[in-house]
Write a structure and sequence with these properties.
about 280 residues, alpha/beta, Rossmann fold, UDP-galactose 4-epimerase, domain 1, 2 domains, 7-stranded parallel sheet, globular
Length: about 280
């Protein structure tokens, strides 16, 4: 039986991944700090069924806590790490860049350093489409230069990709970084647009509508993300000398006005628009 360490395993993407791994009869260790970025009750609901599974272990704690993390590595023979934990959100990172650097930077360094010390060679790590910044070339390519971040969050994700290459090259660790493009579906975080807009429309409250509705972004369904994550796990487990960065998205941007219209149709309710200038 393989043992997986899933950081951030109580969150939106993490809890779906844990569903899959437990269904594959794997042993899963989750570390999550249940911080107050959004209501922790949502995360506890995400993992309610997991906690009755004998193959599931939950550690409530912070990836910045090196000693706590080391105790997990010491007490378990970990085969593969899926590192999803991060301080999320582009705009909030502008308000508190030090926190984002601490969690996303130091936390990831802890994960990689302990993997080196305890001989864990297989990793899949979450990156973000935000690393592309204001790149106007489409479709985005993993070969694009992404040295011009426009948020502290994006900068931490780019830095982690570079740091990962150091550990790959020096310590022969196999890893794939996955650049997620706005993920939606069941359990989506409440701060993300689809969840937030659907709730406000359903409650008859105004939605914040920035610009003329022509701005667009990629949205990726959670099942497709999990398909990409699990295939990446399989690839790193079955191959050696792996260091790859992959986009998980379809390069089919959805306009804001179309997204709102789709939600209106699904809910059978008209959105109340609070028109705002472009951010």
């Amino acid at each position: 039986m393989k043992t997986y360490l899933v950081t951030g395993g109580a969150g939106f993407i993490g809890s779906h991944l844990v569903d899959y791994l437990l269904n594959q009869n794997a042993k899963v260790i989750v570390i999550d700090d249940f911080n107050t970025y959004y209501d922790p009750k949502i995360k506890w609901a995400n993992i309610k069924e997991h906690q009755t599974n004998p193959n599931y272990t939950l550690v409530q704690g912070d990836i910045c806590d090196f000693d706590l993390l080391e105790s997990i590595y010491k007490q378990n023979k970990i085969n593969t790490i899926v590192h999803l934990a991060a301080r999320a959100g582009v705009r909030p990172s502008l308000e508190d860049p030090i926190l984002y650097q601490e969690v996303n930077g130091r936390g990831t360094t802890n994960i990689l350093e302990l993997a080196k010390r305890y001989d864990v060679k297989k990793l899949v790590l979450a990156s973000s489409s935000s690393v592309y910044g204001n790149n106007e070339k489409v479709p985005f390519s993993e070969k694009d230069i992404v040295d011009y971040s426009i948020s502290p969050y994006a900068a931490t994700k780019k830095a982690n990709e570079v740091l990962g290459h150091v550990y790959h090259k020096l310590y022969h660790m196999d890893m794939i970084f996955l650049r997620f493009f706005t993920v939606y579906g069941p359990r989506q975080r409440p701060d993300l647009a689809i969840h937030k807009f659907a709730k406000l429309i359903d409650e008859g409250k105004p939605i914040p509508f920035y610009g003329d509705g022509s701005n667009a972004r990629d949205y990726t369904f959670i099942e497709d993300i999990i398909d990409g994550v699990t295939k990446s796990i399989k690839y790193v487990e079955e191959n050696s000398n792996v260091y790859e960065i992959l986009n998980l998205g379809e390069s089919s941007p959805i306009r804001l006005d179309f997204m709102v219209k789709t939600l209106e149709d699904a809910l059978g309710k008209k959105a109340i628009i609070n028109q705002l200038p472009m951010q």
